[in-house]
Structures are given as structure tokens and as C-alpha cells.
Amino acid sequence: MIARIRGRVVVADPKCVVEVGGVGFELAIPEKDRESLAPVEGETTFYTHLVVREDRLSLFGFLHRDDRELFLRLIEVSGVGPKLALAVLSTHSAGRVVGAIKNGESGFLSKIPGIGRKTAERLTIELGDKLDDLATGAEPERPASSIHDEVVLALTSLGMTRGAAEGALERMAWRPDEDTTVEDVVRRALKYASGG
Q1: Predicted TM-score (pTM) of this structure
Q2: Cβ atoms within 10 A of the Cβ of 1, count?
Q3: 11-41 tens-digit pLDDT
Q4: 137 part of a folded domain
Q5: First and final CA of the chain: distance in angstroms?
Q6: Which of 12, 63, 112, 137 is most buried, judging by how many CB atoms fall within 10 Å of its CB?
């Protein structure tokens, strides 16, 4: 198994390609990691996991060891594949997700694109007491119920980067305290993002 690679990031978007000894490895990485990367001359270390399927090999990479460890726990849960586990780690830190699972915050988890209420509950039940070795992290985050977070999650699930979603909301001069629905804001943001 390929547990870690260190090399030069050649391309970060749309695919992340890391050159190691003249060989370019294509990595599937969380969106939050992609936004902090750019092609650079120095080397970057990724903690990786190789997923073997009958028809293909997929290499998943993470800038933080905790993200990789949580990814491995998530894909052990029935109904959670590598792509869904990657989506979970694309919008939130491993610490925030671990905290939500351990505290039984199925409402928070179910707002992550691709995770419904049943899957969220399954995560809290199956992993709730199996994540003690992973740090929950104390980084501050906006409340999960924030309409701003819901809008950004919806936009990123539609293919936008977090940076592009935030930029569209800024250009709209939209404030979260406005009396409007998530769907309305998402529609307006998509129009702004397309230049319409």
C-alpha cells in the first residue's frame, strides 16, 4: 500500500498531480486541501490511501494525517465509499467531523452533501466510540445551522470551489441575516458565478 508520497505539485486543479522521481501520481484530494495548493517548486507531503477496484486503482491523498485516518474509518462504515468519505473531508476538518460523530450530531452530518439522515445516524452509532485516538480539534467554526454554511455546502456540492462560492456571495453583497431561503441564495449565486 502507498501510505505517503512526497513530491512537487505539478497541477492542483482540476486533478492534483504530484511528481515523484519523474513519475506523476494523480491524487483525489479534499477540496479544502486543493484550495491551499498551487504548483510550486518545493515538495509537498501527502498522506495517502490506495483503493483497489476490479477496473481501476484510485489514490487518495491528504495534507493532514488526521484526515487520512478519519477517511480510513469512514470507508469502513456500510454505505460510505471513498468518494463520499472524501466529500465529508472536503468541507470540514477531521477534528470537526470527529467531534460531530462522537457527540451524536447527526443533524450537522446530514447537511454534508451526499450524507442523508440514515447515513449520518449510522456514522454516529458505528464510529461514536471508535475515534478516541483522533483529535477533535478546537478550531473555531461558524455554527452548523448558519445559512451561510448551508449555502456554501450546496454550491460546493454543485461543483464550485469553496473560494468561488465565497466570492459569488461577496459579489452579491448578500448578508446571512437577510430573510431568504437557501435555494434562493444558491440560484442567485450561480447566476453571479456565471456572470449573469
Answers
A1: 0.66
A2: 6
A3: 887 789 999 999 999 999 998 888 777 555 6
A4: no
A5: 47
A6: 112
Give per-residue pLDDT as tens, 100-158: 999 999 898 998 888 889 999 999 999 988 888 876 544 434 443 357 777 777 777 77
Contact by Cβ (8 Å): 189, 175: no
Residues 143-148: contacts with CB within 8 Å, 24+ apart?
144/100, 144/105, 144/107, 144/108, 144/111, 146/176, 147/176, 147/182, 147/185, 148/176
User: Which residue carries 447527526 as its cell?
Assistant: 106
Q: Are residues 51 and 38 located together in one domain of the fold?
A: yes
- Which range of residues forms the domain containing residue 171? 147-193
Q: Which of 148, 61, 156, 81 is nearest to 112 (CA)?
A: 156
Report DSSP letters for 92-107, one per residue.
S-HHHHHHHHHTT-HH
3-state secondary structure of 185: helix
